[in-house]
Amino acid sequence: MKAPFHAVPGSIVAPQGFLASGVFCDLKRLGTGKGSDRGRKPDLALIYSEVPCSAAGLFTTNQVCAAPVKLCIPRVARGCARAIVANSGNANACTGRQGMRDALDMAATTAAEFKIPIHHVLVASTGRIGIPLPMPHVRRGIRQAAFSLGSTVADATLAAQAIMTSDTRPKQLAVECRLGRHTVRLGGICKGAGMIHPGLSASARPPAARMLHATMLCFLTTDAAIDARALQAALQEAVARSFNRITVDGDMSTNDTVLALANGLAGNPPLKAGWNIMRRQPEFATFQEALNHLCLELAKSIVRDGEGVTRFVTVRVQGARSAADADAAARAVANSALVKTSWFGGDPNWGRIMGALGYSAASVAETRVDIGYSAPGSRQVLWSLKRGQPTTATFKQLCQAVAPGEFDLHIRLNLGRASAYIYAADLTETYVDFNKGDLSNPAALGG
Amino acid sequence: MKAPFHAVPGSIVAPQGFLASGVFCDLKRLGTGKGSDRGRKPDLALIYSEVPCSAAGLFTTNQVCAAPVKLCIPRVARGCARAIVANSGNANACTGRQGMRDALDMAATTAAEFKIPIHHVLVASTGRIGIPLPMPHVRRGIRQAAFSLGSTVADATLAAQAIMTSDTRPKQLAVECRLGRHTVRLGGICKGAGMIHPGLSASARPPAARMLHATMLCFLTTDAAIDARALQAALQEAVARSFNRITVDGDMSTNDTVLALANGLAGNPPLKAGWNIMRRQPEFATFQEALNHLCLELAKSIVRDGEGVTRFVTVRVQGARSAADADAAARAVANSALVKTSWFGGDPNWGRIMGALGYSAASVAETRVDIGYSAPGSRQVLWSLKRGQPTTATFKQLCQAVAPGEFDLHIRLNLGRASAYIYAADLTETYVDFNKGDLSNPAALGG
Fold first, then answer.
1. Prediction ipTM score
2. pLDDT of A272-317, one tens digit each?
3. Does the residue B325 lie in any domain?
4. What is the pLDDT of residues A48-63, one digit of tens each?
5. C-alpha dihedral, A98 to A41 to A213 to A171, nearest 10°
6. Cα nearest neighbour of B209 on chain A
7. I need a surface site. Which of A44, A282, B332, B444 has the fewest CB within 10 A?
8. A273 and A411 part of one domain
9. Residue in B126, B215, B222, B428 annotated catalytic
10. Is B346 within a domain?
11. In the A/B pair of chains, how many CB contacts fall below 8 A?
């Protein structure tokens, strides 16, 4: 079956009525002149819709969350926004009351530029923790960004670059789909690199959440007409299948944010919330599918561009006793330092995988476990272990299976029917080297 | 106050009536000739008491546990043993029924040499996972080890070397204390290096255990007269304060084992179990203190000799709402890849620590947290953060505080009165390099 959507250029400005820009205002400089992104990339992004939008968002479940996260949660709950202002180089986290004042100031400066209500501006930050924002720089940057807004591919790319920190490349995508007679577009930009194990939730820490870390930001735009509750529901489903299923280093950031704006300029009959209505609307299903695809591709691009990452591994657990067990088993394997280093070495080490399964919170019976490898998405699995016993697969065959830059790791617990998957990366010397910090540069202090 | 014990040479053979040996029988060779320890160190250790002993033990809580662990659990429960046979190079884990037969065979071969009941022999293994033991080598090794038994410091050192895997040095210690008129000695050897985050328990997986991994083995001997239940109680307390409070990489092994033998040759009035009796016996308190010291020093030596470790950090959490919260907060920080790499870089990065605290299962209020550093055991803390706000400590001062090879990290949550500590290590490029495996050498497959 043909996918009901296809890629188009322009990411966040592909949908009608959205403008974007990325400017440089030297937020990392800190007065020392060190660590500046000058000449390298912009560090302040602005996204603006010509008309007010439905808004939805998901935020880090880390108890220590940044000022912009605290600012956005109630605004997103109101369901209406029109602009997103975001900076890299400074996370505005652990900055106390000054941090809240600065986040508000970012929103106010942006609102003043466009003469829109201050609560129609959403704010996000990523970078160093614990250092106040250089607000004169930020304000100047916002004014410049408002002046530079445009709707070309280059404008969107500048915005995507502006939110990058240790990312090596901008991450952006847009898709187009048909909702009945109407052509609808969805676009997004995101950033990731280190501290990647998001646990995103709509508002507060979910009960018994036990999730781990990364600064990832993702901003999505669409010209679909969709009310805020329906957009929030769709975003939650898409994030559950994408950003909440990736891990680079098992650390969860204080700043993780996913925001979505829908301005309705496509003119489709509005998609509305309410379980029954949503399920009976084929247009909603199509929109959801396109949004899922967009989020998944952006999420995967974060893992692939993780700090020092050389291998992208999809850990697929099947046959777990419960969904929670499947998830726990997949995350234990995906976050084991020993398993991740063996991926880096191209070593098909099932002993370490068994060890990680054994200490996970999932029920595991050693004599039931199957472990195997395949090409991404393929069902042709080379099993290295069946029912806890090594198969006839040779060491050389197994090495070949884990040699590519991307492969799937299949784990069958054979105890039940639940399954889960996690997109994971290897652990490399480059990651350690990158994160050990640069002491000649206090600007590298952050998370 | 003077400690009621002092160090003596000889480790496991320091107590009366214990003999030890370490021999080479090439268990890593695997027929390929690669990965052999030939000429480097022995790989089979034997510890033997001239008279039957009270026995106690604690084992990995990993659901995937090795054959020797399965063999020892019921034997230790019977409370009587006389010999310990242990090998490195092969973990005898994930080896199915053959593995159980081989572990039994190791016990039987040892029992036959000494003409003692087979259930008086305890067995331990460490090394590669999933490969059957080369039993002809093992049997020959056991006979040779039985023939080579001795009670000199050199014999104990050979045994300590024989259980090493990626350890760079043997770990051993003995202490002497006075129980009334009687001189009692306690000795121990251990090994660690990678996969270090033990979660040890007397028998089965404790309810709601959520612990993480390393192969660590520790064998303790004493000539104190103490019944098996009292020895088990004392061992549990000592391990709770030592081996269960260390982490190198957050991975928990399939083979973690701590065994203790007490042969009573010191002639003291036997220490007996029963809560009331134990508390009223000052001799028991002295014995416990000596055992605690022995286990703690051995446990710390494991962290210091962890794979690629350059920094030994004691993470001290105070002011948590509950003991579980304190433990969760300390472990989240001690196992965060970002925090551990910052230690490696000598970077006093409190942002990453706050991030890890925030995603831990512990209750944390950003505006209450204090973070500081001190020399090991010192109360002179240089605070970098007070109530969530940076102090006047300069970046240079903080760098100096985290520059030494050993320091304490103090975290006050200021929400309650519970505290916890974890002995942790940094994450270095050497760790990654070591664990990425050596593909020219299938013998490096193990955990």
1. 0.74
2. 887 666 667 889 999 999 999 999 999 999 888 887 888 999 999 9
3. yes
4. 999 999 999 999 888 8
5. 130
6. A361
7. A282
8. no
9. B215
10. yes
11. 238
